[in-house]
Every structure is written in C-alpha cells, then in structure tokens.
Design brief:
Oligomer: single chain
Largest sheet: 8 strands, mixed
Distance between the termini: 90 Å
Structural class: alpha+beta
Strand content: 15-25%
Number of domains: 3
Order of helices and strands: HEEEEEHEEEEHEEHHHHHHHHHHHH
Radius of gyration: 30 Å
Helix content: 40-55%
C-alpha cells in the first residue's frame, strides 16, 4: 500500500470514529446567565430551565415553581413524599419538601423517577443536581455545551443485563438473575416490572429480607406515581414477607389487598388458597373464629373446584385441604374442643399433612399436642 492510499485509509477511519462518537453523544446547548449555565428541559411536560450544579445532591425547585407545577397539574400531592432539611451555601439550614419527578427530559433523553426537593423559600434557585445528572451516565461540560457520552453505552449495557436477568429467571437460575438485575439497577433504577421480577427471584432464593426491601421500594414507586397498570402480585410478595417476619397485621392488610385486586379469571382454587392463607394469618393474630371461617371457606372453594359432594372431602396429597384441615385442628385445640380437634387432625392426616401424620402416630402424641401444642 503506497503512502497516498495509507493516508486516505487513515482519514476515512478517523472520520468514521468521529462520526460514531458523535452518534453516541447527546449535546445540550446551555444558556449562560449571570455566571452560571442553565439547562433547558421538560419536567413532567412543563418547559423549565435549571442551573447546572454538580455539587447539589438533588434536583432543587423553588416554592414558587412547585406551586406553579401543582396549580397546572404537572405535579400532584401524591408526588410529595416527606420533609427534610438542607444546608445552603451560606451554612444556613432550611426545611425542604421531598418529591419524585416522574419524568425529566433533557435533549430527548428521559430520566424517570428523579428525586427532588422543594426549598422552603419562594425564590430559591432551580438546581439540576446529582439525582438527575447521575442518570445521564458520563458527561462533560465544554463551554456552554453539556456533552452526554455515557448514556447510550450504559443504556445498552443495562438492556443486555435485563435480558440476561429475565432469561435466567425463566430458566429458574434465580441467583444469576439477581446478579444481573442488581448490576442493571446500579446503572439506572429498575422499572415496575423488573423490580417485581427481582423481588420474586429473592423470594425463590429464600432471601426474604432482600425481597421485603424490594417490595417496599416497588410499592413506594406505585403510590408516588399513581401507576395505573398495577400488577397485584406484588401484594402477594408483600404479605408473604410480612408473614415471614411475624408482622401479621401488615400481612393481613396486604393479603386483603391482594384478594381485592384479583383478576376476573381467578379460579376457585386461587380463592381457596387466599382463604387458607387468611386463616393462617388470623390464627397468629389469635382471631380464632375468623380463622375457622376462612379455613372452612377454603375447603368449600376447593370442594367446588374439585366438584366433590362430600361434606368434608378427602383428597390424598391435596396440600390445600391438608393445610386447611390442620389449621382447623389448631384452632379447635386452642378453643379446647377435643372432638373437633381430633376430627380435623384425622382429616389432615388422610390428606397427607406431614405434621398431622406425625402427631397421629401415637395416642400420646395426640394428647400431648392437644395439651401443649407440641409433641
């Protein structure tokens, strides 16, 4: 290859690199005003300008702007999440309101669920802080230009991680899925569906503490953003986590919410399990009559589901019936009703309940469990 051809190849390669680099970048023209740069953007559709402040932890709104956004339906009261305190540049401490901005659009890039504060001063400066800037990925400031170079790269990496996570979850590789979801979350907060998937993966791995934290995060996002396409299975996870940790009042609350948000194609078997779980919660709340009612409702729904006509159907290895009968056995033990205690213990045993089988293995065990609750 002669020197001229080599020179042409180098020029072409350099041009391609420059072109590809420019394609991967988003350049925002900022406005210079009184010694600061202002970023044009849209907040929930409202056109606004913020001072670029890499030292600010959060996006900051003035009270005047917050009132404007509220009055014009760009914000709702549900977007506000609490109170806090901020230290200003002069060292003074002021109160602030915490809120979540559903969408900030900067140069066509949409940043979702950005934490922000409203300073309790009518004309406080509007600051674009790290709660938004960190979601942009890599960026540089070149004069009056904000050059975003990492957003596309990090977004691509995040998409691949989410794909790997979902595929791993579908294959039952929950530990791999958790690792991928966590890495994706470090780039940008997960959306509602992915948060739910992560919570289920933690549950399947027996990591109830982590599952519980994700559930609380998911529900917090739902409540703040008034998300419409709500998947009520997150209530299923939340009541289970509360139940696991012994928070039975909260378990009852979320179990009831789960039951109220069941879809129209819910089967009688699903309803039967709802009642059985409700019975377990009532039992630990010492609401024994409510527990008995729930266990009987579970049995009735299962009987209708199986189209059995016996008063108390016995279906071998039927876990729901076994659990419901044993639940009734426990309730009647507490209520000192020996006859019903023995009747439901026997039914639970016939359905294959392991603990009932163990208790029924001897007369001493039957009497010991009745008097002590243990064998």
């Amino acid at each position: 290859m002669n020197k001229n051809k080599l020179y042409i190849v180098i020029i072409i390669i350099a041009a391609l690199i420059t072109h590809l680099t420019s394609m991967a970048q988003t350049v925002i023209q900022m406005e210079y005003d009184a010694g600061v740069y202002k970023i044009p953007c849209y907040v929930n559709g409202a056109r606004m300008k913020f001072i670029l402040d890499t030292g600010a932890s959060d996006v900051c709104l003035s009270m005047e702007m917050a009132e404007y956004l509220l009055e014009n339906d760009y914000l709702s009261e549900d977007d506000f999440t609490g109170m806090g305190y901020s230290t200003l540049a002069d060292g003074s401490v002021v109160e602030h309101l915490k809120l979540i901005l559903k969408d900030i659009e900067i140069g066509g890039l949409h940043l979702k669920n950005v934490s922000a504060i409203v300073i309790a001063q009518q004309y406080a400066p509007m600051l674009m802080g790290q709660s938004a800037l960190k979601k942009l990925g890599s960026y540089t400031v070149n004069g009056n230009k904000l050059v975003i170079s990492g957003y596309s790269e990090s977004t691509g990496k995040r998409s691949q991680l989410l794909k790997t996570a979902k595929e791993s979850m579908d294959k039952g590789l929950y530990a791999v899925a958790i690792s991928s979801y966590v890495q994706a979350r470090e780039i940008l907060e997960l959306d509602y569906a992915d948060l739910e998937h992560l919570a289920w993966c933690y549950k399947y791995e027996g990591k109830y503490k982590e599952c519980f934290e994700i559930c609380k995060k998911w529900l917090s996002l739902y409540e703040r953003l008034n998300y419409q396409n709500f998947n009520s299975s997150i209530y299923e996870l939340t009541w289970r986590c509360n139940y696991y940790f012994g928070y039975y009042e909260q378990a009852l609350l979320y179990k009831q919410k789960r039951m109220l948000t069941r879809s129209s194609n819910t089967t009688l078997e699903d309803l039967a399990w709802d009642q059985e779980h409700l019975g377990d919660i009532y039992f630990y709340l010492k609401r024994y009559n409510d527990a008995i009612t729930s266990y009987n409702a579970a049995i009735t729904n299962m009987r209708n589901f199986k189209k059995e006509k016996d008063e108390f159907p016995v279906i071998k290895d039927n876990n729901l019936l076994a659990c419901s009968y044993f639940g009734l056995c426990r309730c009647y033990r507490v209520k000192s009703n020996l006859n019903d205690y023995k009747k439901f213990l026997d039914l639970a045993k016939k359905c294959g309940h392991e603990q009932a089988i163990k208790i029924s293995s001897s007369k001493d065990n039957i009497n010991r469990y009745y008097t002590r609750g243990t064998i």
